[in-house]
Design brief:
- With 325 residues, the protein is an alpha/beta fold.
- The protein has 3 domains: 129 residues, Rossmann fold (3-Layer(aba) Sandwich), CATH 3.40.50.700; 40 residues, no CATH class; 105 residues, no CATH class.
- It is built from 10 helices and 9 strands.
- A 5-stranded parallel beta sheet has the order 2-1-3-5-9, with helices on both faces.
- The longest helix is centred in the N-terminal third of the chain and has 13 residues.
Length: 325
């Protein structure tokens, strides 16, 4: 009897999810024993043609990490969707767009200008930028098309399940793999291995009903009270808007929640919810004082949409330069 088939793929992401898969520790031996690994180009010498040669639906489960930034990633996403019975958006980049998605403040030409022409460390006197096609004596070389907009996996193809996190913790990874192994998958569309509440609901730090923040602090310039709510100390913590399930790794270490698990159940837009939470702790009603406090948040998009700009109601910042939007 043949084993169930498992595929893994890495699109637009840092690669941390590839490492996080190994966080199941010794259980990886059970996974290797249960599944036949049919595609994992990061670790083994698989080719796209190996997947193309398989029958549609032949792969039992695919853990797809990374957002969709290029035409190649879009092609592989569509291919793996067609070949897989179960497609999992594994990690924050596939789930929400994550850090690559912050590029949605610009378009392709602006990204290329910054990366290849105008950054302080760039030396490019000929103004060379990547092209999709170039001719050399050996023939034509091609590169994928670099899209204007970063998309989540489910903005490209239908997704069966989501495993949030940057990266997911080992318990989450094991939860989704075990569910497949035991044939106990939840309803399609479920977030697997995470909670329904917010990080705040599981945080042991003490909170009050008082509006107490008169200034915001950077974590490396402060010494926060280990017992008091970080947000009430003026340290940005996205716990009020973020899905639980990570075990509070950041807040338990004295660092504000970054928001990588995405919006908790019932929250439509994580950034808007965080703006509301921040407004709720400000100790002022004076417009000038509030404006001065807001000015201390020098990168609100980065604070509140760091992991989910493509997934949010905003999706991207509108740009019209050079005919792109």
């Amino acid at each position: 009897m043949s084993k169930p088939k498992l595929a893994l793929y890495w699109a637009a992401s840092c690669g941390g999810c590839e490492i996080a898969i190994l966080e199941v520790k010794e259980k990886i031996l059970d996974v290797a024993d249960f599944f036949e690994l049919v595609f994992w180009p990061c670790a083994l010498d698989f080719k796209v043609k190996d997947v193309e040669a398989r029958a549609d639906g032949e792969i039992d489960v695919c853990l797809f990490n990374g957002a969709i930034r290029t035409s190649e990633q879009e092609h592989i996403a569509r291919l793996l969707r067609r070949k897989s019975k179960v497609l999992v958006a594994y990690g924050s980049c596939a789930h929400e767009g994550c850090i690559p998605g912050l590029a949605n403040v610009a378009n392709r030409d602006q990204v290329f200008d910054r990366a290849y022409l105008s950054s302080p460390s760039t030396v490019n006197p000929d103004g060379t930028v990547p092209r999709t096609s170039t001719h050399v004596p050996e023939g034509e070389l091609k590169l994928p098309v670099f899209f204007d907009t970063v998309k989540t996996l489910d903005q490209t193809v239908p997704v069966d399940y989501y495993v949030p996190g940057c990266p997911p913790v080992g318990e989450q990874t094991l939860a989704v793999i075990t569910a497949v192994m035991q044939g106990e998958l939840p309803p399609a569309g479920s977030v697997v291995g995470a909670g329904e509440k917010t990080v705040c609901d599981e945080c042991e730090r003490e909170r009050s009903d008082e509006k107490s923040v008169k200034a915001f602090q950077r974590i490396h310039l402060s010494k926060p009270d280990p017992k008091q709510c970080l947000l009430e100390q003026g340290i940005i913590c996205c716990g009020p808007a973020t899905r639980s399930g990570c075990g509070g790794l950041c807040v338990n270490s004295g660092v504000g929640c970054r928001g990588c698990y995405g919006p908790a159940a019932g929250i439509q837009d994580q950034g808007t919810k965080m703006l509301s939470a921040v407004a709720g702790v400000l100790d002022s009603q004076d417009p000038d004082e509030l404006a001065a406090l807001a000015a201390q948040l020098d990168d609100p998009l980065g604070y509140f949409y760091r992991f989910g700009l493509p997934y949010s109601t905003l999706r991207r910042v509108k740009t019209l330069e050079n005919g792109h939007d």
